[in-house]
Amino acid sequence: MEQLFYKLLGGKLLLPALLVVGGAIFVARRLIVSSVEKKTAHRSIRKIVRDPSYARTIAEGIDIPYGVKEGFLPEYYEKLKEHIKARGTIGNYQILYTTSVSSSAFLVFVLISFEDFDVGITGKGTDVMKHSYLTFLIRHDTETQRLIIYSDIYNTSTEKFQRAGFLSAILTDSGR
């Protein structure tokens, strides 16, 4: 038995075995992270539905600006808010839930599905379908007439571009 074990370790099966194990771990990690993101987003939405004041708690934690639109009049803000609430999808962003935080700010929970080049179960690079759950705070500053989109910190450049692209998506979709 020991000889067989040493033969496998020293032989040609070690690298393929490690690739399969590594690929499986990588895919499992990606699935776990995606599941945690989904549960966190849905749990937050359920808490807001039960206790609308919880939206302020979430909004306080969203403080990184990802987009600014200058010269945004208050009437445009109201139209944009209604437009986002009425839509199921804006660009690649599926609107999961919206709620007002104040007269000049509201939260938007979205899901974005996208193809990304990643490592598959075999350990080889391939295009895989991924999902990200993002939360945005859309704030209108009436004094400066600015629309500002806030979100949380990103971990990868893909996540950064998804956050930064939301402003463009809502302005393009609303015709503004």
Bin the strand percentage.
Answer: 25-35%
| Overall 3D shape | elongated
**Could you describe the largest sheet, including whether it forms a barrel?**
6 strands, antiparallel
Average pLDDT taken over every residue: 83
Instruction: Record the strand order, biggest sheet.
Output: 1-6-5-4-3-2
User: How many β-strand runs?
Assistant: 6
Unreliable runs: none
Compute the number of structural domains.
Answer: 1
Q: Helical segment tally?
A: 5
What separation lies between the terminal Cα atoms?
A: 72 Å
| Secondary-structure element string | HHHEHEEEEEH
Secondary structure category:
alpha+beta
State the helical fraction.
40-55%
* CA gyration radius, whole angstroms: 22 Å
Question: What does the model show?
Answer:
The chain is an alpha+beta fold. It has one domain. It is 48% helix and 32% strand. The protein has 5 helices and 6 strands; from the N terminus they run H-H-H-E-H-E-E-E-E-E-H. It has helices spanning 2-10, 14-50, 54-60, 74-86, 157-174, and strands spanning 64-69, 89-90, 93-102, 105-119, 125-141, 146-151. It has a 6-stranded antiparallel β-sheet, with helices on both faces. The longest helix has 37 residues, at 14-50. The mean pLDDT is 83.
